[in-house]
Specification:
With 161 residues, the protein is an alpha+beta fold. The chain has one domain: Aminopeptidase. It is built from 5 helices and 7 strands, in the order H-E-H-H-E-E-E-H-E-H-E-E. Strands 1-2-3-4-5-7-6 form a 7-stranded mixed sheet, with helices on both faces. The chain is globular and about 40 Å long.
């Protein structure tokens, strides 16, 4: 179930194959995480996720970390916990490629639904998920931290087949 991608450099995406995230990758991943988010995951979050056996592919071009994702499988569902493209590679189709790779991986393993939360203010991410068939399923009030002890709602999205 591969979606047609709206960009012309798709062969370059297929030439860069992900590898499973290892503890040795974590410093580079944390560096990207800190550069991409106001409230980044910690080194411990990534190490715990590796130890838990989550699906955690990372994409490198030479020594440059392009992006990664963290997904937790449960029976025939998958919860996308984190998907990040390094800031220097954003707006080039990598987010779509990472997400489509996860959808394809899920299909191959008999997963029937993918769930995620996204900041209500992250309109570009919401549009990306919608372009891949995700639909809003609900919201979680005050889910994400903001500055000055404030909170932001999360939009719960799902893709089911």
């Amino acid at each position: 179930m591969r979606l047609k991608m709206p960009f012309t450099s798709a062969p370059a995406f297929d030439s860069i194959q992900p590898v499973a995230m290892q503890v040795a990758h974590v410093p580079a991943v944390v560096h990207v995480e800190q550069s991409a988010y106001s409230h980044p995951w910690t080194q411990g979050n990534f190490i715990d996720s590796i130890a838990s056996g989550y699906h955690m592919p990372v994409w490198f071009q030479d020594t440059h970390l392009l992006g990664y994702l963290v997904a937790m499988r449960g029976a025939d569902e998958l919860h996308l916990l984190n998907i990040t493209v390094a800031p220097g590679f954003q707006r080039r189709g990598w987010g779509s490629h990472l997400l489509q790779t996860l959808v394809d991986w899920s299909h191959e393993r008999g997963v029937h639904a993918i769930w995620l939360e996204v900041r209500a203010s992250n309109h570009s991410a919401i549009a990306l998920y919608q372009s891949h068939g995700f639909e809003q399923q609900g919201e979680r009030k005050n889910y994400y931290p903001l500055a000055l002890n404030q909170r932001e709602d999360a939009v719960v999205m799902g893709l089911q087949w």
